């Protein structure tokens, strides 16, 4: 493994990735097969929004390792089911050592499921709303140091989601979501890197 001057890491397979994506097999596989790939269904966007909120202040590796347990604990992130969670469910989640047991984030996830259902009543859905904030032009960083942590669009998305009752959806978290589900592309797949590697 070697690091290039632009912050990318050349893995043992000869492919370039951000350093964070080359720290473990789990992160490498996630980056190669999921990160930045378009996710346009309500269920998929709700799951990723929820996991990004749990990641806030922690490492993505921690959340990704716990994702199978999160999916089990949160009914595969089905918004209808999660919206119906009550106090016994909250206590169950707080007692589940396999997930991140943060009461505020658990409550936010339940509230966000309810807000997701409310969007349906307004004639839209979570995916359509989130994707409506896709910028006309994606960032064009020349190195990892140039990759932003938020954008005008992520700020606007954060404001709109909060207006609609969502919580734990700050601009930085929303920018991470936008990267993860392919709304903005800051780093291309390793087999077609946008940066010269050397």
UniProtKB/TrEMBL annotation:
The lineage of its organism: Bacteria, Bacillati, Actinomycetota, Actinomycetes, Micrococcales. This is 3-methyladenine DNA glycosylase. GO terms for biological process: base-excision repair. One of its GO terms (molecular function) is DNA-3-methyladenine glycosylase activity. It comes from the Bacteria.
